[in-house]
Write a structure and sequence with these properties.
The complex is a heterodimer of chains A (225) and B (477). With 225 residues, chain A is of the alpha/beta class. Chain A contains eight helices and twelve strands. The two termini of chain A are 26 Å apart. In chain B, the strands form three sheets. Chain B has a six-stranded mixed β-sheet. Classes of the chains: A alpha/beta (225), B alpha+beta (477).
Amino acid sequence: MPRLLLIEDDRETAGEIMAELADRGYEVDWAASGIDGLDKARAGTADVMVVDRLLPEVDGLTIIEAARQEQVRTPVLVLSALGAVDERVRGLRAGGDDYLTKPFAIAELVARIEALLRRPAETLGTVLRVGPLELDLLTRNATRGNRTIALLPREFRLLEYMMRRKDQLLTRAMLFEEVWNYKFVPQSNLVDVHIGRLRRKVDQANEPPMIRSIRGEGFILHAPA
Amino acid sequence: MRLPDFLRTTTFRWTLAVSAAFAVCIVPMFGLVYWQTSGYATAMVDRLDTDEVNTIKDATPARAVDELDRHLRVDPLRVKLGGLFSPGGERIAGNIESLPPALAADGAAQTVSLMRIDSAGREDQFARAIARRLPDGRTLVIARKFDDLRRIEASVRNALAIGLIPALCLGLAVGTLLSVRAQRRLDEVTGKIRRIMAGNLRERLPTRGVNDPFDRQAVLVNGMLDEIQTLVENLAGVGDDIAHDLRTPLTRLRVSLERARQRAGSLDELRTSVDQAIARLDQSLAIITALLRIGAIEQSRRQAGFAAVDLADLVREVGELYEPIAEDKGLVFAIEAKDMPAVRGDRDLLFESVANLVDNAVKFTPAGGRVDVTLFGRGDDAVVRVRDSGPGIDAKEHDLVGRRFYRLDKSRGSPGLGLGLSLVNAIAKLHGFRFSISRGPGCVAEIAASRQSRENGAPPHEARPRDRVEAEAHGCM
């Protein structure tokens, strides 16, 4: 049962987040003020922390910096209404591991918390494997069973990212940030189209599908059942 | 007492200062003229006196009186003076009443005052005199009336009066005229500025079409006022635009929620309605997010994070990002990017603006159409052009497209928030670039990066040549 420390001063937002996370089997410790949050963060007992930036008394970034100075390595997701790019950079520089701008979809928050809890799989050697799917990072070859998959460079990066995070929900925003490295939200359904292309290459008609779309949330890559 | 306004102007004070400097130079000059001229005149008189005194002295002592009389006889102007005095100082001959005590015998010529006595009576004369002691002990004095010095003095004084005083008066007059003119101009400008301050933003400073500094500054200030007016008008429009663009999704949201509450018969139906509601809320939130972002970019003054940006690389990357979606939509999508020297800028923002133009082009071009993204050189500029075969826009709407929330009515039915080009505009402005739109067949959007520093848009503190990006969009959205 993962323990999560939530530092958020808005009671209603905190309530929604706690309810959702409790449903998903998290044990949530809630700190409603900066000082309370600072104490709990420095104790370092949580598996993951969600920290709001604008808090009474102590700023969210100060809490993260203080915790990092105490050698607390707990992954931190920064929440903020400040969405400007340099605010994001500041949040990550202070020691945050991910940054989510308010307002956010609860599914997006959960997906990112889970991504923080499950660090990407370390590769043994240079080959990633998910079921029959193999990705050779050295030769840059992709195969599913005996079939070779021809991938464009960006598709290769997309598949690599998804294979390192198999069985995890990956939202569009996460993919866009991590694979394309862009900070803005495109108006068109760009990610869906790129995933669609990749899926046609990975999952052919006669094969059990490996890339699954979760409506309104994102995508999951998993080994075929 | 308060001085009249024109007397307190800088122009008038400068004129006064220049006049004073002029006088300070002129007076010594006249002094020099006086000194030189009087010296010359004195030397002339002294030579005449010396010649005469020597002539008489060289004659035998017995003839001295005769020689003196001969000298004094022809003197119609009554300027010649002479006298022979006994060793005791009594007058023996000549027309000088007494031996002036200040006059040293056998010395150089001196200026003295002498009493002339002759048939016309006594007269005090100002003269240059020279005295010589004769071998027999008598003293011979030869002098010449010397009014020249006074005349020279008088004429120099007159010349000063005639020349300098009118010159000073003229200076004062010109100074007054100039300062009155400057004051009038200033009053005019002050009046206009008061009206602008009172809220009349359409007022402009008067210009005369002459290229004087005053005019140049007025033109500059007017340019500033244009920009302020545009900003204020945009701002005024924004409230309405926000209300309109937010009301649409919120109204739809309200209607669908109301209907769902009344009609939804199953959990699935209710879920569908809630999904729709969430989508509409997301749309409203996206509008607010985009608005805040544009505001942040517009207010941002930082160009510190600027670095070299490879436009060819950037264009190819945008192309790669949008190629699948264009293909899915059945568009011909062509990227052509020749390598160019790098420009300075924020790569993420420039990428976003090009992506926005391409996003629009792909969105508003009907299936079977064509989108071309090209990078090419034009003069010193590197131009990114996004051209499509979409519906295009009217010429009168070119200026409006960069405004927040502006979306052409013909595309109201299409997805999109009408903020894309506003964002491109804000990013272009942050870089000191120009954004404009003109009509083409379909739509052509251009971003041009110049390698030369330009006066316009370059912050004064930044000395290094800066790149300029111009963005023009023709006929899209």
